[in-house]
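Readers of this paper often ask what the protein records in our data store actually look like. Such a record has a labelled line for the sequence and another for the backbone structure tokens. The tokens are whole numbers drawn from a learned vocabulary of local backbone shapes. We quote a single record here, exactly as it is kept in our systems:
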Amino acid sequence: MLYSVYCRDKEDTAALREKHLAVHRAHLDAWKDKIFFSGPLQSDDATLAHGSLFVLNVEDRAEAERFIFTEVFYNAGVFADVTIRRMRKGYYNPALIEGL
């Protein structure tokens, strides 16, 4: 099942994000077989992260919750809020992802 996990950062957490970046990346690596797509949500000029978006292919909502509730950015207080929603794959164009 696909689940989107939308995480909105608290204000002024760029330094906290940077401090925990290596552990965050290790967490993503540990879950790489379940992450369909992920990335930071950025300002229009790509100079500041405002949050994170994860699209997970997991067994159920509980597994999506395990993913995010063990994420260092969540536990370090980077995120102001997290929204988890089940979704289904609609239109998919992998050619648009190439080269990003």
Q: What stands out?
A: The first helix runs from residue 14 to 19.
